Amino acid sequence: MRSFLCLLFSIFSIHVFSAAQIIQLNVSDNNVRFAIDEEKTHTLPSCAHASKRNEYSFSLNNEQGRAMYSMLITALAGELPISVESANDCLAIVDVERAKGVSVAVKPALSDGYKGVSMLYKGDGITKIGRIEGFASDDRYLYIAPLSEGQDFSMYYRRDVYTDLVYFLEENCLGAGYVSTKHKYASFPFYQDRAMFTPNKESLKRRQVKSHATRAGCTNISFLKDVYELTPAVHPVCGSKHCIIRDE
């Protein structure tokens, strides 16, 4: 499944049609009318005619409408799929459902480690959180599509979990782990099987560090450093272990 960096123009909250191609775009009397290549699956507003169930409209008389039109032009030029949020009315053109928001899916230049990913799981590797629709801000955010209709799209901020380096007060990376960061959470693929921790802010103290661990392995060192002791924690999204990205 392809991953997209969604340029979200509004929060998805009512009806959203995802990953459709634009097949027609017209402008008349400062109103835009466009059609997508698949019929909508949600219930149309009562004002919309059944024969126009693959069409949307909106006005160019406001800043959001003009921005949406620019995004549609971008999608047409790049043959990119779009997602549309319904306003659930026909205030722009009689009998055509009005679009409240538009997202254009842009194929991002992702690192090889993220190509082809599709689903975000809790740390147990079993519980699905949602389908990954895209990445933003240097992979710091994931756009997550809901697993069932009626739920909202969401954003998962990956950088609130520190994953880089663990200090130890013993050689060979033995004993309790410590970090020097003020992140709210910490989890490491090379320490305690990705268990979720939080740096204990009250434990900050200058200590004699004798080793540290990274993805490259364990290194014995010796110096004084201000560090926080790691204590077990439960992440509000991932749970007791760090979330897993897995291709379906």
Brief write-up:
The protein is mainly β and 248 residues long. Helices cover 6% and strands 41% of the residues. The chain has a five-stranded antiparallel beta sheet with strand order 11-10-9-8-19, with no helix packed on it.
Secondary structure elements and their pairing?
Layout: E1 5-7, E2 16-20, E3 22-28, E4 31-36, E5 55-59, H1 63-78, E6 82-86, E7 99-106, E8 119-121, E9 128-136, E10 141-145, E11 154-157, E12 161-162, E13 166-168, E14 177-179, E15 185-186, E16 197-199, E17 205-214, E18 217-232, E19 244-246
Parallel strand pairs: 12-15
Antiparallel strand pairs: 1-7, 2-6, 3-4, 4-5, 6-7, 8-9, 8-19, 9-10, 10-11, 13-14, 13-17, 14-18, 16-18, 17-18
- DSSP strand tally: 19
The helicity comes to under 10%
Low-confidence segments: 1-16, 107-117
Strand order of the largest sheet: 11-10-9-8-19
- Please provide the ordered H/E string of secondary-structure elements: EEEEEHEEEEEEEEEEEEEE
Q: What's the shape? A: elongated
Largest sheet: 5 strands, antiparallel
Structural class estimated from helices and strands: mainly beta
